[in-house]
Prior knowledge:
With 800 residues, this protein is of the alpha/beta class. Among the domains are: 7-168, Chitobiase/beta-hexosaminidase domain 2-like (Chitobiase, domain 2); 509-650, Up-down Bundle (Methane Monooxygenase Hydroxylase, Chain G, domain 1), CATH 1.20.58; 670-798, Jelly Rolls, CATH 2.60.120.1620. The protein is 34% helix and 17% strand. The chain is built from 21 helices and 27 strands. The strands form five sheets. The chain has an eight-stranded parallel beta sheet with strand order 12-11-10-17-16-15-14-13. The chain has a six-stranded mixed beta sheet with strand order 4-3-5-7-6-9. It holds the Pfam family GH115_C. GO terms for molecular function: hydrolase activity.
Amino acid sequence: MKRVIGTFFLLFIAFSNYGQEGFKLVANGQGASLHYSGTMSLVRTAIGLVVEDSKSVAERPFRLTDEPKDGSVIIGIPGESQTFDQLLAKHQIDISDIKGQWEAFHIQTITVGNTQYLFVIGSDPHGAAYGVLELSRLIGVSPWVWWADVTPERKSEVILPVGFQDSQRPNVQYRGIFLNDEDWGLTPWSAHTFEPEAKIKEGIDPDKTKKMQTIGPKTYSKIFELLLRLRANTIWPAMHEVTVPFYFVQGNREASEKYGIYIGSSHCEPLARNSATEWDIVGEGRYNYITNKDNVLSYWSDRLKKLRNSNNIFTMGMRGKHDGAMEGVKGIAAYKDAIDKVIVDQTELLKTYINSDPSKIPQVVIPYKEVLDVYRAGMKVPDYVTLMWCDDNYGYITHFPDAKEKQRSGGNGVYYHISYWGRPHDYLWLSTASPALIHQQLKTAYEYEVRKIWIVNVGDIKPGEYQTELFLDMAWDMAEINEKGVKQHLHRWLAREFGDEAGEKLLPIMQEHYRLAHIRKPEFMGNTREEEADRTYYRTVRDLPWSEEEVRHRLQSYRELSTAVSVIESVIPENKREAFFQLITYPIQGAAEMNQKMLYAQLARHGKVDWKESHDAFDRIVRLTDQYNALNGGKWNRMMDYKPRNLPVFQRVKEEQATVPMVSDVKPHLTLNGTDLQGPSHPVEGLGYEGKAVIVHKGEELYYDLEKIQSDSVFVEVRLLPGHPVVGSELRFGVALDDTPLQEISYKTVGRSEEWKMNVLRNQAIRKISFPIKGKDKARIKISALDEGVVLDQVLVFTR
Length: 800
């Protein structure tokens, strides 16, 4: 990707050194004129958005012109318009960087004497649309202008520097989001607040949808607009049982076509059918391919007949109606045989209704949960179908392509979570996924050729704004994020939304917010679990295994965080206050209050504080949520719910007296972060309990020299990122003390085991090793990676 001048630093106000010589997007309060001689509806949609954006920046907005003139922005796609092609030739504009590329754009100023033009050139309609919307970024309009009420600053002048050029194209072909677990936010907000007028298509039995709510084209248009602004192109629509299926609502399909969005579907929605709900509405018999094959094939066919000319990415294979295993099969071998036959039949349907050459149809197989075991048992997937790998629902990718998988013509993709409903515990309320973890995992995936399709589960979109943009920015330009780092990306995001001064102050606050949540998410603070056999035990709020000192230290950290947010909020301009509340105050204060509610309750159970401390925190969470839903005259009413699924952790804590004491505080002789060890390590900025984790590649060894040891033995606790094997099927490290034999230690987990549950709740895999050390006052600890994928967070050394 070529950028002559980074877009974040492009804006020059009138008093800049370039003065009046640069191209004026806004001059004396007047927006530039825009000329587009083509006919592509997607490009015209983008032009409409940027004209509307300019109304909030300039006194007089961008305007359309039939003929290019001095100061015009000239928009086009090579080969679409003879007039545009002649202008490209006349001004000798080099478009070799984007010619023939997927969704690329090139922006360039041209000066001829005293006449200036700004060319926005797209390699295709999507590329042109992204180029047009880059103009919105250049005049200071955030992609979250509507979805987070980020008000742009008014400007009388916006000037690009002389010779400005910018060429961009995506690293990942299909980039998008999955709207999921929408029961407590997006669906009730859309159905009751934003778009109660949405209509179900005629012919759908109203008795079978009467308990459902709609997300209609007005809502989806706003979502699709957001995707275009974030340079995304794909969506998996909302599909829970509370929501009327996407294709059953009038206008939804047409809205996706207006915004050029590819419609895909999740791991349990084959061939564009939301079987969680659609089967019960229009299917016949059991959703069972083994015993009811004809009806299942007819059900899929009915949808495909209507999608021949639509933009779709088809999910292949079959699971249960919702997030469960395929009906009618027992064991992996039977599952594999059945799913192989399903894919053969589905391919024939695609050839019949979509394209006689199935290799021309975008398709994915998603080895999610049990399907990964089926795939590894030899599942037959056509070479042109994309293999879409998944994380374990908690941010750790479970499979990376091997040499053979990298060579597939269909390529590889990833399905990732920043929001999740399920075992061991949901995290649907506050979006606290570590940006450093997101980057580390997806950077690894990208390096292993996972570049065809990236989808992130965003829940209700809000409050996951930052992680969503980070994910999509990586899919667009991974090299940019790798080069500048997540810290700078977050800094730039904060500065864009709230100004340079506020961004500088907010950066360490947000970093600490994500660090504390990485240690324990707010939703996990009750020490409860879901979907366990012993519901009574695991759904009872209990002490966390932390000492009083650890509890009080964490409380103090959150008090400081909360105070810092309040101080900055008090000086945020009035027109930025509502955006600040949505993007900063609510997530951080919500997390702080949840920690206070649960940790003060833990202390109160042991008689160390009054229960009022916990109850007051609960009341503050309720008030914060009420305030959120009242923002902007009630625009977001019903969007935020502090108690999704009404789980025990979200309720007021029951007053009880502890029957066992809190754990004792055992201080280690030494606590080392990954960066404290010597040797060839690779720090991961911001990752880990102290933000100092390191990658250790296979064959590399780290060490640390212990001194002044007064003990007969040492106990070493190695704490690692709880990832999954990257190459092969093992994940091991070696540890030794001085010249003792290397101990080979595996920390791979299988399925959703008890150890895996503990690991993802605390974001550490822990191994403990003891070494005799009698007669020594110093020794060297050595830790080496025996497989790829080892990320060392901390090493704790105990002497007794």
